[in-house]
Amino acid sequence: MQCPKCPNSPLVATQAQAIEVDCCKACGGIWFDHHELIPLLHESLPELTTLRGKSAPRGVNQKHGQCPRDNTGLLRVSSALGRSVILDTCPECRGIWLDGGEFDTLLKSVAQ
Ligand SMILES: [Zn+2]
Ligand SMILES: [Zn+2]
């Protein structure tokens, strides 16, 4: 799959707990299938630090991406978990894209 935000950057499958997520090494973003994100956030186990990665380069967050699975334009919605985080979600497959650093912010809001 291709990163929704970076041209020519493939997503790399990364194991986190029992699930596999897809990360972009260039911008630090992470793609979750719709059933993957919520259980992961509630695990809050040390292994999750592997996903915490770097912050996205400037401007990436504002970019409109396309779903790596079906190329549908992603919608920007504020997360119910952390209002400071704007998620990109696919209206078609309900997958969720987190820009670099956003996973970290979400983890913190869940922990509070
Ligand atoms: Zn990227
Ligand atoms: Zn999709």
> Count of helical segments?
2
What integer is the average pLDDT?
84
Can you tell me the number of structural domains? 1
Question: What distance separates the N and C termini?
Answer: 34 Å
Structural class: alpha+beta
Number of strands: 6
The largest pleated sheet is described as:
6 strands, antiparallel
Strand order of the largest sheet: 1-2-3-6-5-4
How big a fraction of the residues is strand? 15-25%
Structure ligands? zinc ion
What radius of gyration results from the CA coordinates? 13 Å
Please provide the ordered H/E string of secondary-structure elements.
EEEHEEEH
Residue stretches low in confidence (pLDDT < 50, at least 5 long) are none
As a percent range, the share of helical residues equals 10-25%
The shape, in one word, is globular
